[in-house]
């Protein structure tokens, strides 16, 4: 039996048999893997605490015929404080759901792995507006999986965009004033500028941007439309929170 040490975060759990858990762990070394944790449903089991949702840690796994099995784990950050805050809990669930939706089993994505861990750490603080952080993470997800927005050059004529209020969501980018009649939807100028900033800025610098509720709402409509269109499943984690807010 060959053990492999991985660094990862538990993005989804499921009950398996009487006392076991089935985990999906997004790892730096192996990508997203499915893992059986024997006895992990029992609170006194050594694997109980390292197999909770959002747990970030070091894991020793070995490959079975179809699944990995968990031998042991060590917590780096449990993120269990999310359970005491509905917004944080919902957004953390959404982060993990997006990873699960856009990454195939055994698919590695080092850039997205780093962004995922960074986003969870930032969500755990009160330094950044939660909603703005999540909008930025959505843009990182799209970029990491080949659907990033091009807001520098017109997706129609390819010329550099000097000033624009238009997007072509079918081609994931901005549309210049000259081409706007042919294609594109109108968005507020503040939204276009904010999208451009969030698209290029690292997550730890997102706190510099202060968005109005209208701008956050418009950006969400854009990212939600693209995410719902390009991936095989639509995320559901935010539905209840959005319902409560409305």
- Based on the structure, what is the oligomeric state of the protein chains? single chain
Low-confidence stretches: none
Structural class: alpha+beta
Number of helices: 6
Classify the beta-strand content into a percent band. 15-25%
Q: What is the element string, with H for helices and E for strands?
A: EEEEEHHHEEEHHH
Radius of gyration: 20 Å
Largest sheet: 5 strands, mixed, barrel
The number of strands is 8
The global form is: elongated
Please list the strands of the largest sheet in the order they lie side by side.
Answer: 1-2-3-5-4
The share of residues in helices is 25-40%
N- to C-terminal distance: 53 Å
Rounded mean pLDDT is 93
Protein name: DNA repair protein RecO
Structural summary, described in words:
- This is DNA repair protein RecO.
- It comes from Candidatus Sarcina troglodytae.
- The chain is an alpha+beta fold and 246 residues long.
- The protein contains six helices and eight strands, in the order βββββαααβββααα.
- The strands form two sheets. The chain has a five-stranded mixed β-barrel. A three-stranded antiparallel sheet has the order 7-6-8, with no helix packed on it.
- Helix 1 (86-102) runs parallel beside helix 3 (130-144), helix 3 packs parallel to helix 5 (213-230) and helix 4 (189-200) crosses helix 5 (213-230).
- The chain is elongated and about 65 Å long.
- The mean pLDDT is 93.
